Amino acid sequence: MPDEPLRERGKARRTGRIVHAAAELWRAHGMENVSLNQIAAEAEVAPQTVYNLIGGLDALGFAVLKVALAEMDAASARTTTTGVEFALEVARTSVEVWTGDARLYRQVLVRIPQVLFNGVHLGRDTADTTILAMKQAHETREIIPQADPERLGRAIYVSYLGALYDWACGDSDDEEFFRAAQVAVLAPVAACANEALRARLTARLLTVLAKPTEVAEA
Predict the structure, then answer these.
(1) How far apart are CA 166 and CA 110, in angstroms?
(2) Cα gap 125→104, rounded to integer Å
(3) Rounded distance, CA 118 to CA 113, Å?
(4) In CATH terms, is domain 1-55 a member of 1.10.287.3510?
């Protein structure tokens, strides 16, 4: 029908307003202090519209996270790096996105384990970019043929999630989060890299892991 695209654009605009309103209110007041009715009022829609377009507060949390993931996806699409360097760039970009809006994302991310346990999902495999990077590394022989690139990519992502959750809980600062994200990539990849690349990656890993005094002396 001719008016179908118009209706879809209208739904997209209302959805965008709702997600933006939730993010703004959560930054200012905290998730635990903001009701769905307040978000609806801020977005200038009825509460039922929020439920119809997105869902409850947990679904809104995922919608806010999807904005961050879309930003990371856009950065990945623009890069010219591949393989191991691509994986490192993905880690760096993601840290920049999360820490760039720490007030919002820390509280939303801390809520995620409970939300996942209750059966709400993002609707995508968030390890797919890291797995792609390792498949590229496998094709170009950056990593040895015996290493399964999908398992390696997922192992990297699991380690990265640990670093992300530590940061979200306040157990590490931005700088430590960045270091941990690099280690999540470098440690398993160095173990699986070809002989020539292994030495370089190990040196980079040791630089990241060095004590602050040793870095200063170097």
Answers:
(1) 9
(2) 23
(3) 9
(4) no
